[in-house]
Fold:
Amino acid sequence: MGGSLRVGGFADVHPGTPVTVKTGKGEILTTTYLEDGQGGCFQAASASASR
Structure:
């Protein structure tokens, strides 16, 4: 994957930022945009915990 690494935050992510969800083959599943939200913390379950 290409791109650049930016350390220190997500200054380019804000309400109105376009979002495209694709499959592993690059096929577009849906497109939308970010809305106002609230930051917070969460912990994703590991793959082994869901077995």
